[in-house]
ABC transporter ATP-binding protein (Streptacidiphilus jeojiensis), 324 residues
Amino acid sequence: MIELRELTKRYEDKTAVDSLSFAIRPGQVTGFLGPNGAGKSTTMRLILGLDRPTGGQVLVDGRSYAQLPAPLTHIGSLLEASAAQGGRTARDHLLWLARSNRIPDRRVDQVLAAVGLQDVARKRSGGFSLGMGQRLGIAAALLGDPPVLMFDEPVNGLDPEGILWIRNLMKGLAAEGRTVFVSSHLMSEMALTADHLVVIGRGRLLADVPMEEFIDRNARSYVRIRTPQPQALLDALDSRGITAVRAPDGSWEVEGSDPAAIAALAGAGGVVLEELSPQRASLEEAFMRMTADAVEYHADATPNGVRPAADRTGSATTTTGATS
Ligand SMILES: Nc1ncnc2c1ncn2[C@@H]1O[C@H](COP(=O)(O)OP(=O)(O)OP(=O)(O)O)[C@@H](O)[C@H]1O
């Protein structure tokens, strides 16, 4: 378990992490989301003792990182910026880490095999591709067989097979009862991987909820219906006080009713249906809605960055004030 208590980090006049309190629990994958500059990497660095908090504290299995006798056996991590020394072979890099954490040498070959790098174990990591480098970083995280794992943007640079591998790895680690904390900007991937979400914006906690609840609370779900008999459909729905709204593409949308209930009403009214499909909001949609006010860096929506003249008056777009 990782526990943050009123954790705060200020850099001069910038508050990167603002009184964050939450717990990352074992047995599930917890996704860590936030717009650019929200404070995710800073939070992860504080968890690993790479930065000193301005206020509050963070504990890994009840102790601060500095109090952990062999840290890699308590928490394994892959940070975006973490890199092996390019002149060393993959195996030597891991051996060096293992020995400084009292981990037996044989574990090095186990983790190299676990991440699929056994064939290049004796090659210098400087020549590795981005994906191979990520795999080496993950091997290092797994080295101490730790109960807590933390990954910052782990799928960066990985091909589809690598992304699937990471997803299954994380789910597997959580299923073993470990604490898995992962940040990513890839919403579709996060939706497939995480059970729980922690969302921050401008250093502050915005949400700490199960994935399903986050989507349900922050985005719209509805049933989409297509019929050649719209009036008959509206009448059938109206008999139960259900309202359908016409979408621009000619379909009808009903919120707050399940497809089975609508099918039963349509069937009873003899209404022909060409489509009846539940439309579940995406994590991306929910995330955009929740963090709209916490986004510091907005880009113009136009392809060349030049807004249409009509849009150039008033206070619209570009960058909002970044103070918190
Ligand atoms: N060493 C530092 N000195 C000054 N400001 C910093 C430092 N590190 C981070 N910041 C600032 O703190 C804020 C949070 O940065 P951080 O890198 O933690 O965000 P993030 O959520 O990881 O962003 P991204 O998604 O873009 O990686 C940013 O405004 C950043 O500019």
